[in-house]
Amino acid sequence: MRSFDGIEARGAALVTGASRGLGFALAEQLKKRGFELILHGRDGDALKDAAEKLGAAYYTADLSQDGAAEALYWRIKADGFTLSVLVNNAGLGASGEAWTVPGPRDTGLIAVNVAAATKLTKLFLKDACGRGYGALLNVCSVGAFQPGPYTASYYASKAYLHSYTLAVREEAKKYGVTVCSLCPGPLDTEFFERAGVRKPRGAMSAEKAAEYAVKKFSKGKKTIVPGFLNRLARAVPAALRTRFVASLKKPG
Ligand SMILES: NC(=O)c1ccc[n+]([C@@H]2O[C@H](COP(=O)([O-])OP(=O)(O)OC[C@H]3O[C@@H](n4cnc5c(N)ncnc54)[C@H](OP(=O)(O)O)[C@@H]3O)[C@@H](O)[C@H]2O)c1
Questions:
Q1: Structural domains for the chain
Q2: How much is the mean pLDDT over the chain?
Q3: Whose CB has fewer CB within 10 Å in the chain, the N or C terminal residue?
């Protein structure tokens, strides 16, 4: 698989959900590698601050809305940008017994984590495969590797995105386009608070995860798992991991 070294001179990098957390940290790493940056977020004030810090262009869009992902992509193109890198990072979680999660929370989660990421992947790959260069990083989770009791829709959304990413990777490689899946473990961001649960102890900093992720992404690594213990845990049988997740996530 080709690395993405050199493509920073051929187009900008778009990072979705870059107003804070992992998205912002990934954008910082791409800036260090010389990419012109385009940040996306939903919260205009946080996004503007982030863009000012990184000297980036920025676009707001609520990706849970019908047609928002396509409109975002077309706006960026209409403004004259060519994208050589796309990072589909925007995402949200949900917790609790599946039938207690409010319907709109699941609908919004699927719209952002699954539908918007799929639409942006397709739009980006159509252009990148046509041109013969580009690199795509889809942000999944270690939750993609087994079912997640008490966070069922979130883990299932990431399992979808991970599988989809590895499939399109195979299709895209003959065009010289790199596609990678980033699967972090727990991160020290606002994610858990926003999902209504306590942050697990020992969560990795977004900066550390992003530094590792972009290093591996630049080399075209298929599945990128920051953290030695997170990589080691993949050797444990999935049924045991599912029981572990259940014990960890069970409320009360
Ligand atoms: N935190 C973890 O432990 C962890 C572990 C594995 C994977 N991940 C994944 O990493 C990615 C980033 O998470 P994070 O930890 O950095 O969480 P975060 O701090 O909550 O940031 C999430 C980002 O996604 C954006 N976003 C959420 N809903 C959106 C919507 N409807 N439309 C547009 N943008 C939306 C947010 O934008 P606004 O701030 O503007 O709303 C924000 O920029 C997610 O895909 C998450 O699933 C996180």
A1: 7-249 (3.40.50.720)
A2: 96
A3: C
Burial class of residue 221 in the structure, from the number of CB atoms within 10 Å of its CB (0-12 exposed, 13-18 middle, 19+ buried): middle
Least Cα distance to 33 among 206, 178, 176, 215 occurs for 215
- % of the chain with per-residue pLDDT over 70: 98
pLDDT tens-digit map of 54-66: 999 999 999 999 9
Please tell me the predicted confidence (pLDDT) of residue 7: 87
CA of 174 to the centre of ligand 1 (A): 31
- Give the pLDDT of residue 143: 97
Q: The tokens 């699967």 sit on which residue?
A: 183
Q: Which residues does residue 182 pair with via DSSP β-bridges, in sequence order?
A: 139, 224
Q: Ligand 1, from 190, 191, 212: best to mutate by most atoms within 8 Å of Cβ?
A: 191
139 membership: H or E segment, kind and range: strand 134-139
Q: What angle do CA 87, 92, 96 make, to 5 degrees?
A: 150
- pLDDT digits 0-9 by tens, 157-168: 999 999 999 999
CB of 17 shorter than 6 A to ligand 1: yes
Distance (Å) of CA 99 to CA 95, 103, 105, 153, 158: 10, 9, 12, 11, 19
